[in-house]
From TrEMBL:
Pfam families: GalKase_gal_bdg, GHMP_kinases_C, GHMP_kinases_N. Belongs to the GHMP kinase family. GalK subfamily. Galactokinase is a key enzyme in the galactose metabolism where it catalyzes the conversion of alpha-D-galactose to galactose 1-phosphate. Can also induce the transcription of the gal genes in response to the organism being challenged with galactose as the sole source of carbon. One of its GO terms (cellular component) is cytosol. GO terms for biological process: galactose metabolic process; positive regulation of transcription by galactose. Its EC number is 2.7.1.6. The keyword Nucleotide-binding applies. Residues 114-206 form the GHMP kinase N-terminal domain. Transmembrane segments: none annotated. Pathway: Carbohydrate metabolism; galactose metabolism. Keywords: ATP-binding, Carbohydrate metabolism, Galactose metabolism, Kinase, Nucleotide-binding, Transferase. It comes from Hyphopichia burtonii NRRL Y-1933. This is Galactokinase.
Length: 506
């Protein structure tokens, strides 16, 4: 399936509301570069309904693409230069020469680094197709309305948009969603963030009116599916930005990257305890918790799980949760946290070997490694994803009025796990969830990387107005008394599943 090409704005849920934005983009492009753009590349943000910090363990997740997006008007120039500008004045313009390699300074945090992430993976892909490829000069003007640091994956949106426009400008008019996903899942690694793949896949595979089941095994793919129909009132998801910014790049050593290290270590720890060997298929070139699950049940004489049979997955994840509670796997002290020396001893590694294997690829900082807590979060949230899907399937066969309560319970349990086991929530996020649950939300949870950012709430159309008013009155106006109406409108969004990455021909 190829990335779609449009000649109008029909890929939006409300095309009319975006017309002025695109007109302004073309006008600004002409002012900056003195010519008209040839096309616009676009990739949306996403909200993850359930299943966070499990994608880099290769367990399935349930996001959906949003209408908020990053767009880039583009034209080809005759020079050996790439020129970048942004409609937002706080993001300065850049210009640099095309060279065989593109350097990214992780110490110098600028928005151009994310463009270069997309540029690098696109250039690598073009050279896969034709080793003699030489990039063309480009003029680009970016515009984005995905909140930065809001947990809706603005960084993935700009990386994917950048890769897409570079490919198009250099003659690739047809690229499959699978290939675009494959090359962009590693794009943010170039700025030192060890991402999994959910964000890029959700941005690329999104379809209007459909959520996505993203699977990582046996291969990375996004599978669109219809949200269940609820009566008498329609189910809706509301997204509210806590306005607690959490930039993945800046907080990665203690937050995102550390979680990646901890779950990789947890997989190796479990394998060592049970004398299993794992395939080194993680971003750190270690084993993964999904790999551990497969190897463990192969040891028990059971066939490898294909990821599709929900009941098999539920059964195996439940047994893994029982397994990690055994004292011979994690004793009481180990459940509280593990120091580096103890972890390296248990894995029979010298300190230097331990550092090289787990701590050398991406920057991390910690006092103790929370291997028990992280593995419990991964197995339990992966289980909740499958239970969420099973409720959806059951709804199709036999509509039930209890579906909203059942789904909401899973969302709330996921939030508790994100907070207590993965330590990825914040007090303001907890408060926002609590206000919502008391005023019309069936379930509320932090979405995406966490550590701030946005909350997704499950509600229905009839409850929506009172829920929004409660969030405004009890959270936003209390914490941000000078907040404007426009800022409130940006912070509280009714999210409908949207079209993924695409090209708009002008």
């Amino acid at each position: 399936m190829s990335v779609p090409i449009f000649k109008d704005l029909s890929f939006y849920n409300d095309a009319n509301s975006s017309t002025a934005r695109y007109q302004a983009l073309q006008t600004s492009f002409n002012k900056v570069y003195g010519n008209e753009p040839e096309f616009v590349g676009r990739s949306p943000g996403r909200v993850n309904l359930i299943g966070d910090h499990i994608d880099y363990c290769y367990f399935s997740v349930l996001p959906m693409a949003l209408d908020v997006d990053v767009i880039a008007a583009t034209s080809i120039n005759d020079s050996n230069t790439i020129r970048l500008a942004n409609t937002n004045d706080k993001f300065p313009s850049y210009e640099f020469e095309i060279s065989p390699t593109f350097e990214i300074s992780q110490a110098d945090y600028t928005w151009v680094n994310y463009f270069k992430c997309g540029l690098i993976v696109a250039n690598n892909y073009l050279k896969e197709l034709n080793p003699s490829t030489k990039l063309k000069g480009m003029n680009l003007l970016f515009d984005g309305n995905v909140p930065t640091g809001g947990g809706l994956s603005s960084s993935a949106a700009i990386c994917v948009t950048s890769a897409l426009v570079v490919l198009r400008a250099n003659g690739l008019t047809n690229i499959s969603k699978e290939d675009l996903t494959r090359i962009t899942v590693v794009s943010e690694h170039y700025v030192g963030v060890n991402t999994g793949g959910m964000d890029q896949c959700a941005s690329i595979y999104g379809e209007k009116g459909k959520a996505l089941l993203i699977q990582f095994k046996p291969k990375l793919i996004g599978i669109p599916f219809e949200l269940p129909t609820t009566k008498p009132h329609e189910l809706v998801f509301l997204v509210s930005n806590s306005l607690v910014e959490s930039n993945k790049h800046e907080t990665a050593p203690t937050n995102y990257n550390l979680r990646v290290v901890e779950v990789a270590l947890a997989a190796e720890w479990l394998a060592k305890k049970l004398k299993l060997s794992l395939v080194n298929d993680s971003n750190l070139e270690t084993g993964t918790l999904r790999g551990f699950l497969d190897s463990y049940f192969e040891l028990l004489g059971e066939p490898r799980w294909d990821g599709h049979d929900i009941d098999v997955g539920i059964n195996r994840l439940t047994k893994c949760l029982e397994l990690i509670e055994k004292p011979e796997i994690f004793n009481q002290e180990e459940q509280k946290g593990v120091e580096t020396e103890h972890a390296s001893n248990c894995l029979e590694l010298l300190t230097d070997q331990f550092y090289q294997r787990f701590l050398s690829k991406f920057p991390v900082k910690y006092d103790k490694l929370k291997l028990y807590q992280r593995s419990k979060h991964v197995f339990s949230d992966s289980l909740r994803v499958l239970e969420f899907l099973k409720i959806f399937e059951g709804q199709k066969l036999k509509p039930s009025t209890g579906i909203l309560q059942d789904l909401g319970k899973l969302l709330n349990e996921s939030q508790q796990s994100c907070n207590l086991l993965n330590n990825a929530s914040k007090p303001d996020c907890e408060e926002l969830c609590q206000i919502a649950r008391e005023n019309g939300s069936y379930g509320s949870r932090i979405t995406g990387a966490g550590f701030g950012g946005s909350i997704v709430h499950l509600t229905t159309v009839d409850r929506l107005e009172s829920l929004v008013e409660a969030l405004k009155k009890e959270y936003y106006l209390q914490k941000f008394p000078n907040i404007t109406q426009d800022q409130l409108n940006e912070a509280i969004v009714v999210s409908k599943p949207a079209t993924g990455s695409c090209i708009l021909e002008l």
